[in-house]
Amino acid sequence: xxxxxxxxxxxxxxxxxxxATFCMRSMSALRWVAISxxxxxxxxxxxxxxxxxxLLHMLLLPVNACRLAQLQCSRxxxxxxxxxxxxxxxxxxHRPALPTRRAILPVGRVSWMQ
Length: 114
What we know:
Elements: H1 6-21, H2 27-48, H3 51-85
């Protein structure tokens, strides 16, 4: 693996960006990194002639772009509503996390597993 080509470097960068999306804590950052990975994978798939990968990321790119636009639109609407009710301050309210629920599973086998 001493002769890593530029094309392979683009592929590894795209894979690294996909991995980075799983580390994102905010949805906005996740969408931006996902868009970057889509662009990198489109370039990689085009240069390597990988039609399935190219098609997948060409379909995912507008999905991620639309979701990011929806997220930003909902944030601007929310800030407009908060600004109307709190004209003297501009802040983002944070709701407390919901309590987690634990599933209670039966000890024996489920009928469809037998």
